[in-house]
Amino acid sequence: MYRFEESAVAILPEVVAGNRTGEADPIYTLDLDEAAGIIRAVVHGFWTLAEADAYIADLSLLVARVRARSPRVKVLIDRRFAPIQSTEVAERLGAANSLFQPGDGFAFVVDSYLAKAQLRRLFVLDYSKAFMSLDAAETWLGAV
Questions:
Q1: Of 142, 139, 115, 82, nearest in space to 130 by CA
Q2: Coil, strand or helix: which one is 119?
Q3: What is the DSSP-derived secondary structure letter of residue 101?
């Protein structure tokens, strides 16, 4: 797993990838798109609680990096390649709500209405929204 210390925020790479031991493909990537001012995440597969914790830790470091330069944070999470997570993992991921504040933008892209409903239940922030289209999510983030 790609891990960073809190003090490393200033030198955090632009792309973070979380890999399972022995697997080449990451279960998530986090990319800081400096030009658009958006943290982009792509997530894959069914996660364990430890993987959810690692993802939240990596995301929190990127959020801190962006927030150090801007009062607003925009995040686009592409979940089209991840199935519905277990209740425990979904609730753990919902704890990431605490990273965000009014004025931020938090968009999800999903592949089913069931995934959209799960996200609406977990992320009840006024500044978060789930979409079935990547273009729609990017357009909404550009307007917030």
A1: 115
A2: helix
A3: -
Q: At what angle do helices 87-94 and 49-69 cross, to 10 degrees?
A: 20
Buried b (16+ CB within 10 A) or exposed e, 35-74: eebbbbbbbbbebbeebbbbbbebbbbbbebbbeeeeebb
Entry pTM: 0.78
Domains and CATH numbers, the chain: 6-143 (3.30.750.24)
Token duo for residue 104: 């931020």
Q: Do the beta carbons of residue 41 and residue 75 sit within 8 Å?
A: yes
pLDDT in tens, 93-102: 888 888 988 8
How do residues 53-81 score in pLDDT, each as one tens digit? 999 999 999 999 999 988 899 999 999 98
Check pLDDT > 70 for residue 8.
no
Count of alpha carbons within 13 angstroms of residue 76, beta-carbon side: 21
